[in-house]
Amino acid sequence: MANVWIAASDGNLDAVKAFLAAGTPVNAQDENGYTPLQAAVSYSHADIVHYLLAAGASATLGNSDNETPLHYCESVECAQILLQHGADINATNAEQRTPLDAAIDDENEELCAFLESHGAVSSGIVTEETASLAQLQAMMQAQEAAEAAGINMD
């Protein structure tokens, strides 16, 4: 196993334990601020999520884009675990997007319903991933109109 992030992503609990036992900090961050907990929730490895949190991992620590583990979450089970350990259901990343926005982008209906039932809100920010064709056309028309009026859109 090359590192703790790969071990967590691959669901290799024994390797995660070995890395931590060898001195890798439980909240270690790679060059992008990505943590082992974020890796584990990205692949729905609930056993590793439990282990890392019990070992002191932060359920709220964001990466360089301020994305928390809940932004990376792919399953209701892992989301429940994170919330039980203090995750902020409406944490915003550097683009002011919430974990619900990430679940919407992923078209994860089960996770969206779970997050909404626990008070999650969407930022309402429209991106290429979430925009409908009509919304994209309206945005393009508005940009064209603004540019035609001499407004600098950069």
UniProtKB/TrEMBL annotation:
SMART domains: ANK
Superkingdom, natural source: Eukaryota
Record InterPro entries: Ankyrin_rpt (IPR002110), Ankyrin_rpt-contain_sf (IPR036770)
Keyword tags: ANK repeat, Repeat
Classification via SUPFAM superfamilies: Ankyrin repeat
Gene3D superfamilies, sorted: Ankyrin repeat-containing domain
Sequence ranges of the ANK repeats: 32-64
Protein name (database record): Aste57867_17919 protein
Provenance organism: Aphanomyces stellatus
